[in-house]
Amino acid sequence: MGEKTLAKIRAMYEGLSASEKKVADYVLSHPSEVVQMPVAQLAQNAGVSDPTVIRFCRSIGYHGYLEFKIALARDTASPVRLIQESVTEEDDLPTIANKVFTAGIHALHDTLGVLDSKVFAEAVDTISKARRVLITGVGTSGPIAHIMYNRFFRIGINCIVETDSYLQLMQASLVKPDEVVVAISQTGSSEDPVLTLREARKHGAKTIAICGTASSPLTQEADIVLLSVSREIRPEAVASRIAQIAIIEALYVALAMREIEKTAENERKIWDAVVEKTL
Known about the structure:
Distance between the termini: 59 Å
Radius of gyration: 21 Å
Number of helices: 14
Structural class: alpha/beta
């Protein structure tokens, strides 16, 4: 199990520090269990600090703990678990549907549980005061970025969406201090959104990350972090996208409530146009 990742740990073992070797020893002995552990639990079980676990991951070639767990999960998972982590080959169709829906429910519940009301309020204030909002996301985060754009422009927020990695970096290079750049990435380790927020910060813009882990390269470049939590390790799990959409919808409603009359009028105009087109 996990031979690629475990082989990498064994190959680099002698170059690790004494505390990092404690993490390595635990991972080598409990690979399947580690896949399900948050960083704090692995640190406790290995008898080290949380930062030591992060250093261990980087020492063996990963950007952070989430990327390491994804690699380990990919190596240890059965073919079925690569499709959906809780499903087994013996499950009938109703059970499969129930497990998929339950994963989404858990993601919503867990995300709400870590939603900091002060951070959420700061995100709402920052977006409402921005002269313009640049919304970015690449790969499977691209559709989520478009959903955010669709919700924001209809309430009168001056916003644009960019899902091309080069174009979003180019856009970020031209932002002003009174603008906001939002990056959506569940892993938080993809290079493109990290570079985009880093570039935006160079020009004084406020940066917001909607991300699945608090300790990722992306969150290091964000002024405001909204966490989208999923119990599934797979980076493209739909449950994590459901959590991201819920965060976006909460932002939309909070912003809309500040301009109820304007929002209602805009929604009426949009629906009138849509209905007219369908007649």
